[in-house]
């Protein structure tokens, strides 16, 4: 017999019988196709488990099988128990998250509103002179505790924003007459004149000459509130409208108001002196206006003639030092700088046609192009404002326009008011009035703990009063000065007795 040819066996294909006979006569496979899926094997095991349960029953299963195949009721009980335990923990977990969220929110509110801060009287720096002692005795607001509204009044940001956006509640509308003053360079200055509604307590004719803040005028809410209150206390009020600030008054020369230009304010004072030869003057400046009035009085000794006193509120004293702090994010100062720059851009662009159409203008398309991209007051001052007066550099502009170089020449009584939480005025700038009050006997520097920038609202809990602490302390101080000038010998004698 010849050799049989061996055919190679494939590992996946068998030509032999792959079954064997069992004792029960059932043919069981000797080889399982590897292509059989895991799902099939799982289905087989489940069917086997069900058949075992049918034949034996759960109570007759061996312990090993019972542990391996727990009854359906047991599994359901375990699952229900776990879900019950997890469900009981959910409300407690959510309560903890809510409590943490509330605690975080309250912490932020307390920090932002500065609710932990305590109220206190203003910090007053003055020299021990008869006039200084008399003024502190006659102005109790300078020594009494200033109490802002409880919920939000301790936040300098809210005080500042409330002043800037909402103004005053129940703002009065004093009636005045607008005056137009032609200037030597062709500009037209304007101011509003408001007559006194009552006689002054001294019986004298007294006029307050007022310079508002940056880009402001007599129609601003805080100015109207202060003017109405001053009128009722016997003061005539003259309020300067910054050149270009009024949207209804066109420019007649290629320039606008600047940080320290005193030309328009000087023209208003000269008009008042001429129109009312017997009147006495009280000079008041707010923010940028405070820089202008102090610079005006210190520029020339003759500017102090017939001036009884000067009050400056919330000014920065040195533009050169302030512009560096204005670029910092501390106290959100950079954000305020951006907002004020946008306001200045709107004012300048509203007079674009007037600035470009005049032959003598230093402002051209190139400067206006830089204005569109400006995001800070420094950029606007460099590209536009300094060129109105021909300054060669920004440093020269800030140096020449700041009142810090002129204040030591003021001889009339001078009250400087600032707030510690003013977000616009850096703490380093407050060293200027401190040193001035230490060296000059006519200067009083009052620093409140709260008040923001030109805020100084008062109130019980939520709603502020229409009249602010700032309004009242200015009139209280000017009243005291008027009485001091009316009877100086009596005042000096009483001051000396009180000091003893």
Automatic annotation (TrEMBL):
GO process terms (BP): acylglycerol catabolic process; medium-chain fatty acid biosynthetic process; medium-chain fatty acid catabolic process; sperm capacitation; steroid hormone receptor signaling pathway
EC number(s) on file: 3.1.1.23, 3.1.1.6, 3.1.1.79
Reaction equation(s) it catalyzes: a triacylglycerol + H2O = a diacylglycerol + a fatty acid + H(+); Hydrolyzes glycerol monoesters of long-chain fatty acids; 2-(5Z,8Z,11Z,14Z-eicosatetraenoyl)-glycerol + H2O = glycerol + (5Z,8Z,11Z,14Z)-eicosatetraenoate + H(+); hexadecanoate ester + H2O = an aliphatic alcohol + hexadecanoate + H(+)
Upper lineage: Eukaryota, Metazoa, Chordata, Craniata, Vertebrata
Signal peptide: none
PROSITE patterns (alphabetical): UPF0017
UniProt keyword Zinc present: no
Stated role: Progesterone-dependent acylglycerol lipase that catalyzes hydrolysis of endocannabinoid arachidonoylglycerol (AG) from cell membrane. Acts as a progesterone receptor: progesterone-binding activates the acylglycerol lipase activity, mediating degradation of 1-arachidonoylglycerol (1AG) and 2-arachidonoylglycerol (2AG) to glycerol and arachidonic acid (AA). Also displays an ester hydrolase activity against acetyl ester, butanoate ester and hexadecanoate ester.
Family: Belongs to the AB hydrolase superfamily. AB hydrolase 4 family.
Alphabetic keyword roster: Cell membrane, Glycoprotein, Hydrolase, Lipid degradation, Lipid metabolism, Membrane, Serine esterase, Signal-anchor, Transmembrane, Transmembrane helix
Any single GO CC term annotated in Swiss-Prot or TrEMBL for this entry: sperm plasma membrane
Domain of life of the organism encoding this protein: Eukaryota
InterPro entries linked to this entry: AB_hydrolase_1 (IPR000073), AB_hydrolase_4_CS (IPR000952), AB_hydrolase_4_sf (IPR050960), AB_hydrolase_fold (IPR029058), ABHD4 (IPR012020)
Name recorded for this polypeptide: Monoacylglycerol lipase ABHD2
AB hydrolase-1 domain span: 207-460
Active site (UniProt): 287 (charge relay system), 422 (charge relay system), 453 (charge relay system)
Compartmental location: Cell membrane
PANTHER family found in the cross-reference section: ABHYDROLASE DOMAIN-CONTAINING PROTEIN, MONOACYLGLYCEROL LIPASE ABHD2
GO molecular function, one term: monoacylglycerol lipase activity
Main localization of the protein described in the UniProt heading: membrane
